[in-house]
Design goal:
Length: about 290
């Protein structure tokens, strides 16, 4: 795929209560800001460089960051996260503060989509728009479960030795293959390289398993997607095995001003061949 023209890339650490968050920004700071929030056990590297570069080329200021227990951000003892999902939501707003931004567009994927929703529900005046990729709306019941094949794969996680980096890497490679869509061939080699890069970069990669234990510090009933005040764009693959596309469709039923962009045959991933389509949708949404 054609890469975007090179853009300015800067890095800095944002200090929050109880943690330091590693961040990276693409583009010119005077452009409309977009903050990217990645999902469970995944550092900011899972936002592909080209994805960030293409958004920056569309005159956006793109900030991605490592959530707690991923990448170069603060890590906690395995099994003892010492933070809740509410802290992760507040971290997203702290990123705005760290960059001197009054407001920003939030883009969250998978678990990062839940974090983005909670940040928007807690701090609606700080969030211009929401883009929610391969995720599900807060407090909406009756949505379909993951596919049977993915449920069986997830059950196998109980047998993984989460203190063994080799075992973790093997599971993550299988997981990426299970999450792939039907529209494009799964690039196992690229995924393996990304996993290796992610694991080598983190001082304590096994700590990322703390994300499994997160519990919100807020009464769940107070966090409902229908209370979102800003425009919402749901981007969802029609072949997503973790959150079937009905989860993306649900946003249009419960959230005012929400709309859905389907990635035909897309899975629970940001496939390189889908980046151009996804970037166009996000750029149109964040005007």
């Amino acid at each position: 795929m054609k890469r975007a023209a090179s853009c300015l890339v800067t890095e800095k650490v944002v200090e929050v209560k109880g943690a330091d968050l590693q961040t990276q920004a693409f583009g010119v700071s005077s452009n409309p800001p977009i903050v990217l929030i990645m999902g469970m056990m995944a550092s900011m590297l899972w936002w592909p460089d080209r994805f960030c570069e293409e958004l920056a080329a569309r005159e956006r200021y793109v900030i991605r960051y490592d959530q707690r227990d991923t990448g170069l951000s603060t890590h906690y003892p395995q099994g003892e996260p010492g933070y809740s999902s509410s802290d992760l939501a507040n971290d997203a707003i702290a990123i705005l503060d760290g960059y001197g931004l009054e407001t920003a567009h939030l883009v969250g994927m998978s678990m990062g989509g839940f974090v983005a929703q909670e940040a928007a529900l807690r701090h609606p005046r700080r969030v211009r728009t929401l883009t929610l990729i391969s995720t599900s709306p807060h407090a909406v019941e009756g949505l379909p479960s993951s596919t049977k094949a993915y449920q069986e794969h997830s059950a196998a996680a109980e047998a993984v030795d989460w203190s063994d980096l080799g075992a973790i890497a093997d599971f993550l490679r299988r997981d990426a293959a299970m999450l792939a869509g039907t529209r494009h061939p799964h690039d196992a080699e690229a995924v393996s390289a990304l996993i290796a890069r992610d694991m080598a970069r983190a001082p304590s990669f096994a700590s990322a398993t703390n994300h499994f234990a997160l519990v919100s510090g807020e009464e769940p009933a107070r966090l409902q997607a229908c209370d979102l005040e800003m425009r919402v764009l749901a981007i969802h693959g029609t072949a997503d095995p973790l959150f079937p596309v009905a989860h993306g469709e649900a946003f249009t039923k419960v959230v005012p001003h929400a709309r859905l962009h389907r990635i035909e045959g897309g899975g629970h991933e940001i496939h390189d061949r889908d980046i151009d389509e996804m970037v166009r949708a996000i750029a149109d949404h964040t005007v």
